[in-house]
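Open question from group meeting: does this chain pack into something compact, or does most of it stay loose? Before anyone orders reagents, we agreed to write out a predicted structure and look at it together. Recording both the input and the output here so the notebook holds the full record.
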Amino acid sequence: MTSTVPFPTSSNPSTSSAQQIMSQLQPSELSMVSCNPLTYQVCGFVYDNSLSTSFLDTAELFYESRAGYENPLITATSRALIADIHTLIRQFSVIDIPKPSKILHTILPFHPPDPGDSDPWLRVLRIWSEVEEFSESESFDGHKRSIVEHTLNILLFPDLHIGFKIPKSLSLHASSPEAIHELSMILPGIPSLPVPGTPFAVPSPLHLQLPILTRLSFNEQGRITYHRDVWDMRDVIGLVPGMRVAQWILGRAGAWGLSWIGKRLRGQPQSESLIMSAEAVV
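Structure tokens returned:
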């Protein structure tokens, strides 16, 4: 989906460093949609789809000093708080267990480092976001609003999986752009666990997905004044192993139960009197 609304750019390029950061922003390779750069850059920096090492350098470009951020758990009322919170979140997007030799070198600085210690001993966690759809609107006073639908991917023990591709900032192994392109064309996008001794793979229970709805409000200068992330409690509960099946069964059983109760009430003569009394009260 291509945006038909010209989206704002920063009208106050106070420093050359700001211009340099904006020029280096690149969209994630995961998204297959053409979206507004600023909206996508915000989602990329917040959910670690960007190659930037610090959110502190970009929060000033995107957010007003008194911008607000909310999700079902927390509320932040300033740009500094927003930057600190999202910097902490980005730290948990990559969790690895280093090799014992690297730990020894950290504890004992005089211990010579091993050139092969760059790779971790065990990769534990990777978190990234995939933008799916977005919409934009503009009010008569020049304020703009974007609504972004994206999915937060949580993958445990990524080395055990095949058939997926993650942003460069979270890559498991260094590879050339040609190899990355070939991999994305051959392998599907869903992490799967291979079945030993067979060419087949099954969907991984270690891959969790949380749909998120992000609302961004912009002022006339093109800076964010309000940022809200919304997710459904049903989706959060579904992250627990086995709960999706339980939700599927209980949801349909509840609907059938309510339907049965409604039919029983319609079949009783007193139901008409109850309805008439309710209408009289209203």
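Observations to bring back to the group:
The longest strand covers residues 122-138.
DSSP finds nine helices and nine strands in the chain.
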